[in-house]
Amino acid sequence: MTTAAPTFPAAASRTVTTVRSDAAGELLDLLPATGGLSWVRRGEGLVGWGEAARLEVTGPRALAEAAAWWDDHTAALDVADELGVPGSGPVLFASIAFDPVAGTSVFVVPEVVVGRRDGVGWITAVGTAPELPAPLRFDDGPVLRLRYADGALDPASWCAAVAAAVARIDAGELAKVVLARDLLVSADVPLDPRRMLRRLAARFPDCWTFAVDGLLGATPELLLRRTGRRLSARVLAGTAPRGAGAEDERLARALLASPKDRAEHTLAVDSLVRALEPYCDTLDAPVEPQLLTLANVRHLATDLVGTQAARGRASGAGLLELVGAVHPTAAVCGTPTPDAAALIRELEGMDRGRYAGPVGWLDAAGDGEFGLALRCAELVGDDGARLFAGCGIVAGSDPAAELAETQSKFAAFQAALEG
Ligand SMILES: C=C(O[C@@H]1C=C(C(=O)O)C=C[C@H]1O)C(=O)O
Q1: Interior CA angle at 380 toward 376 and 385, to 5°?
Q2: DSSP state, 139?
Q3: Disulfide engineering: 199 pairs with which of 125, 239, 260, 416, CB 3.0-4.6 Å?
C-alpha cells in the first residue's frame, strides 16, 4: 500500500549529469538550512538537497514497491556520469521504518548530490550540473535554552518494562529483546540541522552522520553495504560506559570479557548471518568481536564480509531486497524475531517510526550503504526534536544499568543540540 502518491520528474528534468568537482572543505557545510540529506563519515560520502522525486510507502510490500519505483525512475533517465563510481549518477536517499509493514518509509531523490570517495569529488544534478554553493561558515550559533520532557515512558516505568522483559526471558519465552525509549526536547529558537550534523560528525568520526527527511543522527552500526557483489556489515551489540583514566581501560576489558554482553552480541551477529547467508556464495565473520570506542560509549563490534551469489535467484536480489531480508536484526529487535517484535509492541508503549530502521542510500547500479538509524532524533516542527535510545535486554540485564545506557546514548544527540 502506498501512502502518498509517488512523484516522478517532469520530462524536461530527465537528464542527470555527474561531473568531477573537488569541493573544498566539509561536505556537510554545503547543506541548505532545511531539507538537507546526508550520509557522511570521515569527510567522505554524500550530501544532497532538493527533491526531484519522492516516495512514501507502507505495507507488506513496501520495500519491493520502493525497489520497483527506483528501477522505473532510473530506467526513464538520461544519465551522463563521467565517474561511474558507487554514489555517482542518480542517487536515492532512504529512511525505512523500523516496521515497514506498519510505519512509513521515505525515499527521496535529491535534485543535487555532492559526493566524495577516496579523495575524489563530484557533483550530480538533474539537468546540467550547477555551481557548488558557498559553504556555510560554521560557528557555534546561539546558546539554546532547551526543555526536556519524558517521551512515552518516564524512567521508572521504562525500568519496570525492562524488569518485565527480563522476567519473560527468565521464563524461557525468548532470549533477547531490544527496548528503547524516547525523550522530547524543545528549544527557545529554531534548531539548525546543519549545526547538529556538523557537531555529530566532529564528535563521532567513526559513525555515519545521516539526515533524511527530518531524521538526523550519527550511527555506529552498518546494516549492509553493497559494492558490486561485495557485501559488508558492522554488527554492534554489547555496550559499556566510558570511564575516566584507568577506569576506562578496566571497563573496556570487562566488556570484552562479559559473558552477558558476549551472548547478546552473538545473537545479533547470528541473526544477520542467518538472514544474509541464503544470498551469499561466501560470508565471513571473525570469531572474536572487537571493541568500538566512541566518545560516549564502547561497543562490541563484528565486521562481516560476503560475496553475493553469482547464480540463482539470490544473484538478482537488489540492495533493498537484501536490506528487507536482514532487517530487523537482533541488534535492534531480538531473538526470536517475532517474539521480540511482539514484546516490543507490548512493553515499549511508543511508535518507533523510523528510529532503528535502515537509513542510507542506493545508486542506479544497485550499490549503496544502509546503517541502522541509531543515536538519532526526529525533528518536530522547527524548534523541537524526539530523541531515541535503546538497549539489548538479555538474562541478567539490570534495569538501572540499562537506563544509564540509554542516557549515555541520548547524550550523543544532546551534545549536538547543546554544542
Ligand atoms: C538500540 C540501540 O543500539 C543498539 C544496541 C546496543 C546494545 O544494547 O548494546 C548496541 C548497539 C546497537 O546495536 C540504540 O542506540 O538505540
Answers
A1: 40
A2: -
A3: 416
CB 419 within 8 A of CB 220: no
Interaxial angle between packed helices 399-418 and 155-170, expressed in degrees from 0 to 180 and rounded to the nearest 10 = 140
Quote the CA–CA distance of 333 and 98 in Å, as a whole number.
9
- The CA distance from 328 to 57, in Å, is 18
The bridge status of strand 384-393 relative to strand 2-7 is unpaired
Please tell me which residue in 26, 65, 111, 176 is annotated as part of the active site: 176
Q: Which three cell numbers stand for residue 398?
A: 539490570
- Band (pLDDT 50/70/90 cuts) for residue 2 is very low
Residue with CA nearest ligand 1 atom 2: 390
Topology classification of domain 146-192+229-352+374-418: Anthranilate synthase (3.60.120)
Can you read off the three cell numbers belonging to residue 124?
550530480
In whole angstroms, what is the distance from residue 129 CA to residue 131 CA?
7
CA distance 407 to 414: 10
Cβ-based burial of 331 (10 A; exposed 0-12, middle 13-18, buried ≥19)? buried
Q: CA 232 to CA 283: how far, in whole Å?
A: 9
Question: Whole-angstrom Cα distance, residue 374 to residue 382?
Answer: 21
Q: Is 221 designated active site?
A: yes
Q: To the nearest 10°, the Cα dihedral for 348, 351, 352, 354?
A: 170
Give the bridge partners for 218, in sequence order. Answer: 209
Q: Which atom of ligand 1 is nearest to the CA of 388?
A: 16
The ipTM is: 0.99
Backbone φ, ψ for residue 81 (5° rounding): -125, 105
For range 387-403, the mean pLDDT: 98
Identify whether 176 is a catalytic site residue.
yes
pTM comes to 0.96
State which amino acid sits at residue 317. A
The predicted-structure confidence for 170-190, as pLDDT tens digits, reads as follows: 999 999 999 999 999 999 999
Strand-pairing partners, residue 122, are 20, 115
Q: Residue 10 burial (CB < 10 Å; 0-12/13-18/19+)?
A: exposed
Sign of the CA dihedral with 368 first, then 369, 372, and 373 last: negative
Say how many CA atoms lie within 13 Å of 180 toward its Cβ.
30
Grid cell for residue 122: 563530484
Are 37 and 215 in contact by the 8 Å Cβ rule? The answer is no
Among 251, 267, 270, 299, which is best to mutate for testing ligand 1, by the most ligand atoms less than 8 A from CB? 299
* Cβ contact 312:279 at 8 Å: no
